[in-house]
């Protein structure tokens, strides 16, 4: 202890000469010490492994390593973009995601708004718990359940429709190519609506209650309060979530699609992720898979910046 | 201020300190047993290294064994499990099994963390990687060094030998011609089967299935009878198109001895047209294209299926609820070309390969374990459980399972597996001695299955050269093959479920065109070259089923 004290004192005269910046650094030492391990973690586990994207431009050999494998340029990119199936998998990926953006993105927002209007606290937390429970079920199980529900031979949905005399014979839902995208988006909503609503519920909880009181005095009804108080207050959150959603437009839930695929719907169900898994990863073609992953990331980055820029211009709220 | 700063420092230091402590204590834990094991092995291997490696060395060791099949689970239990006890007693080896899929194996390879023994599908892309990298030891050299009396059939050695002159893995279910005696026939998992009770009820005979018209008429009878079994509608048939192609005699080689892709033959188109006809007449359902094998199995269990082509679908559960519900062999249906029907045998070149890590500590002991496990009697032991406890030979030289085993197995087959270890360690199994000594049985379903197997055994051929044409993992050809396979799934469904025969022909041509775009010619050139090499290695001029 004495040692430490003396050390402190010895450096004290020098401190006076230090710039304001570095003295601020020293004052924040306890805080800084919490930031640096996180930063180091990020560097070691997220940035350093990025050198691996080099293999997208090489013919990767497990034993030559990333550095030793021979360069091949854009061969793998060319293979993917010239693939006769490329347009098909791109279309399916975009269709599922755009549909998800139009139908699936607003759903948790509406859900959070409605949930906020429930006055019984117990009922509210009950609904919330029930709605985000499916999030914790894996896609394999959830998909299996859906396949059973939609089954033409003994599925509950066909049974119901038959009972109601809405249809005369069972529909093989998973073989209907025009329904597949909607089924995907519907499943995603069913599984993710409660979980997705959490962030909006948190945003709503942060709204100043006095604004509601003011609105009430001004004679606003429920819907007007939602429209003129809640919505503007959570708009920042909505925009940020939208930017994220747009930037991940080339990603589809891999497991979800994989589970629901079959020979009859492959034309509309093959997405970039599942296709590259089948013809790349499972055949140990790591370079090819990395090339496609890299191409996807570049597109995602462009979309992220683009969406961010547009949002900053239009709504004044943005990620950075 | 100062106090705050110091407490901050203390906090950081203690944080780092605890991190370091965690590391070092981990290291200690890991180091302790491994260094002990190392010194132990050093003392053991010293005498073993000499030429007089004693097979009697039964000092206890533990080896790690990775099986690249994620459903495989086995906990070594040399106390309660009679098979494990027998192996540990005889070799001194305790096996620590782990398992996972091929992706996990890739991760183990990349991490340089390969266990002592690895079992993988012989067609897995990881195989080439393991063999070429020196990660696994050449078996021939280990045998020469440590187990000179270990006789591996020449055909196994030749078949798995690489360009470098070594072979690296021991196969399971390999049909080595050295092991075959008169009357041994390679079996098939394909065939044509139908429910006997329904045939009797509707007056259908097995011969009816020998022609296309007869088959359609037979299935129509089933459909028109609107049969209900246990409340389920009986579906006339679940067939696979490639089985029908084989029945129609699609050639696998042309007159010059070049490889032929069966999908490119007139018989293939004929088969798709036939399947489409069955579909349009309501004899095979739409879900035949989407159901997994397990789902079809469930329908068979419910008695809701009249006829199938897949022998692997087990109908014993159905038989146990209804002793009349037997599946018997029928047909097989022949096509218009006049070619003789055939079925593909199970892979003669086996299923899995088991390899030894070139850095494994106890290579001498492991190669002797291989020798021990690959004897004919051990094939019987791993299939039925240890001899003497689970079975013994009867006076005809056939296997007779013990009363105790049969009783426990009937009560709870999982308990039987835990106690006898039957069917839990098949990585060295040689099916020929098992087929030869199959228990004489009075159970009707078993008799029928035996009979079905023998019947379609007559339709098999030597498929060995065709088992060589799978491209190596990581290559461009492997990518093309995956794309084409993927395309064929769609393509088949489209043809079989087409609205008219003209639509089948159109879809067929579209599919061929698409395959050309995906790079079929390049894949074919590779496959044909591999096929020629295999024929040369086997000393054959022509191969494939006899069609005339």
Automatic annotation (TrEMBL), chain B:
Segments of skewed composition (Low complexity): 32-54
Pfam families named among the record's database cross-references: SBP_bac_8
Keywords on record: Cell membrane, Lipoprotein, Membrane, Palmitate, Signal
Superkingdom of origin organism: Bacteria
Signal peptide: 1-21
Region annotated Disordered, chain positions: 30-58
The keyword Transcription is annotated on this UniProt entry: no
InterPro entries listed in its UniProt record: Bact_solute-bd_prot1, SBP
Record carries keyword Cell membrane: yes
Protein name: Extracellular solute-binding protein
Species name: Cohnella endophytica
